[in-house]
From TrEMBL:
Organism: Rhodoferax lacus
Keywords: Hydrolase
GO molecular function, one term: hydrolase activity
Keyword NADP: no
Protein name: 2-pyrone-4,6-dicarboxylate hydrolase
Domain Amidohydrolase-related: 9-274
Length: 279
């Protein structure tokens, strides 16, 4: 069986469709050209590569806190997709419950874009997400996790870490931010996405500088706390990327089919609430 035929859940991708869902007027970045990915295009990519389920992440680019495109994709999927929404820090619980009822399983926190100060008043939101059994998804870079980790742990929420924690390869495995990401594995409440290699690797494909960090994450978290994601349609990528080579990269990293099953299917089903028996 080809890796493309194995059951997989893509745990980080975006729907960007400015034709049907125009971008918000105040966003800092407006994806265009090959960065755009409609529901139709996304469905074709999923079918081609054997993705049975997906976690659709509402992007700060294009839409910001406008989740209409995300919610439309979730509704059209009939349960095949779950979502991560972007919301204001003071979003009321009633709105969070509405989003949860529409298939949203967590809220995105993006200090790598917004800075840590932007989330200084978000502790109450994190605690309410914990009460609602919703995920706190975080994208950090460099040493931001040092300051953020105690807040995440204090919230009681389940934590989903984007893109390997985005370490700086020039600073080595011992850098404080990456060590803080590794330490969260001991909490039993954190899951890390093996994704976004292009966001922190130096030298481009095949992302050799990212490999030591991926290896360290797998060792610290185990495959029961790791998931895989493509990051399609590759916003702000500095070079041409495609899903197929990324899957082949994982195939070389994890040659055992049973290991890939845990990464691609078993763990994301448990973490995201998909029915593992549903095809």
């Amino acid at each position: 069986m080809s890796i493309f035929d194995e059951d997989k859940i893509d745990c980080h991708n975006h729907i960007l469709d400015p034709l049907h869902f125009p971008y918000a007027a105040d966003v800092a970045y407006r994806p265009a050209g090959q960065e755009i990915g409609s529901q139709v295009q996304h469905a074709a990519v999923m079918e081609a590569y054997g993705m049975r389920r997906a976690l659709i992440v509402g992007p700060n680019s294009g839409y910001g806190e406008d989740n209409r495109c995300l919610l439309a994709a979730l509704a059209a999927s009939r349960g095949a997709f779950k979502g991560i929404a972007v919301v204001p820090n003071h979003t009321p619980t009633e709105r969070l419950l509405e989003l949860k009822g529409q298939g949203v399983v967590g809220i995105a926190f993006n200090p790598s874009l917004q800075g840590l100060a932007y989330y200084a008043d978000a502790k109450d939101l994190m605690r309410r997400l914990a009460d609602l059994d919703m995920l706190v998804q975080v994208q950090v870079h460099e040493d931001q996790m040092v300051e953020l980790a105690p807040v995440l742990l204090d919230s009681g929420a389940q934590i989903l870490i984007d893109h390997c924690g985005r370490p700086d390869p020039a600073r080595g495995l011992g850098q404080a931010g990456f060590q803080a990401v590794l330490a969260l594995a001991r909490s039993g409440r954190a899951t890390v996405k093996l994704s976004g290699l292009q966001k922190f690797s130096t030298g481009g494909w095949p992302f050799a500088s990212a490999l030591p960090y991926v290896d360290a994450l797998i060792e610290a978290y185990g495959l029961d706390q790791c998931v895989w994601a493509s990051d399609w349609p590759f916003l702000k990528a500095s070079e041409r990327l495609d899903v197929g080579p990324l899957l082949r990269w994982i195939e070389k990293l994890l040659p055992d089919v049973a290991d890939r099953r845990r990464l691609f299917w078993d763990t994301p089903c448990r973490v995201l609430g998909f029915d593992p028996a549903t095809h």
